[in-house]
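pinning this so it doesn't scroll away 📌
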Amino acid sequence: MRTDTGHPQALEDWNQTAVDYPKDRCVHELVEAQAERAPEALAAVFNSASLTYRQLNDRANQLAHHLQSLGVGPDTLVAICMERSLDMLVGLLGILKAGGAYVPLDPAYPLERLAFMVRDSGAPVLLTQQPLRDQLQLDPSGCRILCLDADRATIAAGPTRNPASRARPDHLAYVIYTSGTTGEPKGVELRHQGLLNLIFWHRNTYQVRPDDKATHLAGVGFDASVWELWPYLTAGACLHLPDEETRLVAEKLRDWLVAREITLSFVPTPVAEKLVALAWPGKVALRALLTGGDRLTCQVSPWLPFPLINHYGPTESTVVATCAAVELESGDGQAPPIGRPIANTQVYLLDEARRPVPIGSTGEIYIGGDGLARGYHHRPELTAEKFISHPFSGEPGDRLFKTGDLARVLPTGTIDFVGRNDDQVKIRGNRVELGEIEVVLGRHPGVWAAVVKAVEDGVGEKRLAAYVTIHPPIPSVNDLREYLKDRLPEYMVPAAIVMMDEFPLTPNGKIDRAALPAPAGGTTLQADGDPLTEVEETVAKIVAALLGLDHVDAQANFFDLGGHSLLATQLIARVRDEFGVDLPLLKVFESPTISDLSAEIEQMLVAEIEAMSDEEIQRSLDGPA
């Protein structure tokens, strides 16, 4: 049966997702209830440090009272720039308890971007730590800076009782900044009600219990971190935070998940695909591995001892809008679907006239329901453009969010993600507006115009390529790359920058992006330099193969060539296979050139030989018997 629009009745049934959940409380009140119910239960563990629910609640209360004395209340935005840590959890909960909404700032972002977010949010208070304040020179005008370490004595002087909070479910819980087409990020305003819907859907779907051990891996500026925290802290479960190297290296993360007996874990898509390809013990505590943030391309082996669950959702719909368990390997090469709408969420696939499309046809994803954001911070025009009146609802005020994502419905009734209908792309799980990079690059005094697009490299990864026309003062490629590094996060800096006399044009005078040349496959940063040593030659071949390049030389920088943290873990694995040494991840960041990496490997090889006995050395020279 079809409706008069041609939309299958099955899709109308699909949006019958109403489920009751508590709508009269705020998130921090649910954490307070857990602290009262089981005060000595562990709330979070990081390395050898931990917090009980009593300790977490008491410290957050002291902070909340102090924030209230500074004027923080409902819908007051409080910026927080901290590394993943137990202090960060105290900071986030303390902001909510004060009645405010937190604005997470990733310390890895450039200073200029961080400063813009603080200015744009209008946050009267910034929570941070003294080392970060010193390192990032965080001194935005008009914003009071509070360091949870240096100001600990002042904060701890406050009472430990739960503060009175005037926040209600319709007030803001947090504001996440995402990439924007104007060259500046835009803040998405999310309410407690949407977060409550996510929390109770997650707790019901994954049967979260107080004895669960969950993980917090995502960067604080990624909205998945919201999803990692609050469903577990409101259920009395324990959060485990791995160190930086563990969360990035698939083998180490697997071993850590097994050793810690983690029961539920979210892992961003690129790492999840590596994790499920590894060998696992036959029996593990992990009940489900959750993923999302990028298009999942893998299927799973029947020997994987837990299910892999794929999730989809924009920041504007409180992290998750749809989900589906990934099926076992079928050999058809198809990417797993993104599933069906979660509780109290509606998903429509509409054509350009905003009419539902039939099964099998491609349409743009529009999302409605309790998870929708209030809108964009200080951007009423953009809010009106993206959050439209709900054409299929009779309820006044109901809206749909226009995602810009394309999908189709499979005969099974699940949604199959197709791609984007604009210039927004996903790079290593991060949402990137190509227009933002173009605007920033175009501000360089030597750039006349800039175009950025995503291209497939030689190993099937999506990378950014920038094309520029220039004028005096003529910049070098390295000048432009350093300029971008100072203004954009690492994942938004193009792996290749191509200088052109002029851009190819379509017949109607627009830039023909399809006709832009492919970036050169190789690089020669020191064409006339010294010849490579044997170790350098091997490392250069490893790097070239990882990055899909023809060749690299001794002074080539792994990250300038398009490398990133996930590829760095693959580099370490290949170095281990080739040389038999475990190169620390930190060394790749500290010594990113082929020459410096090779020197590190040579030192490790020499150290191993020096530690060997004469008999061991002789046996290694003799080879196998």
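📌 and the second one:
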Amino acid sequence: MRQDVNGRYCRISLSSGATIIVEIPMPHMLTSYILQVIRSFSVASELTYSNRLIIHLAWNRVILEGCVNVGLQIEHTLVKAGGRSCIGNELEGPFSCDGNSYLVRLVDKDFFEKCDAIIDYSEQNLTNLALSHHMLGVSSKTYLIHPIPLTEPRFERHNKGSANEFHHVTTDFSEPLSARRAYMIDRLKENGVRTVNHQGFYPDQYYQYKRRKLLLNIHQTDHHHTLEMLRILPAILSGCIVIAEQKSQHELYRNLPNLRFIEYSDILNYTEGDFRHIYESSIVSNDAIVNLFKSLKKSNIQEIKSLINQHVR
């Protein structure tokens, strides 16, 4: 790949002859994911007839003429009525898995309707869109790209650190002081569990996850229930055990290794000893993690190949 930075945009020339255009600087929280998308385009373009294709990764909500404009959709789509940024962005959804009625929310719907293709990080989001007849135009051009590291994960052992450090639980909340997250952290501290928050996303998130044993994932609000795979999947691929709040459609991810679903109210009752039990009962081999990575990488390349083939002239 060859990069040409020109003012606002970076043009990346792939060896296949295709070109990727992305606005810079990229948002901090999306950098690692956008780089993974670019890597998938680089590999997939070698396997397709794409030598004149110009791809614009439109994370900035701008449409460029003369390009295949690919929007990045990273918002939650499974949202209860009354949730943040619902008005004007949602249509009633088909889900009532846990007795609740949900909306299928698509923030900036007008923009995504103008895009030639859309990339989403969440299988759950794609499921929601596909089952809503109001979203068929968007759903039919949306492709699933999993957030995975650029290189195959390797571990000296499952995870580093002392076997006695189960009082140390990592969170990765961009809004750690939201009411339900702050309440959870306070209750765990009362039970002798120390939580350390790495706020938001960061370039070395895989390195940080490799240094931890347990990642606790709690939804920010009572309304937004899409699982946060932008942090959960990188943590799993780094060797963490992930304890996630159980909500609707969690069965989509039931087969992921090292992922445990627990009700919010039950997490409040956990103590240091309970977390040790979860760790010891969840741990899988490094080979399983590597095989998961290879499977997701292959899926990403296949999705991008399908996207490219739809737009080769």
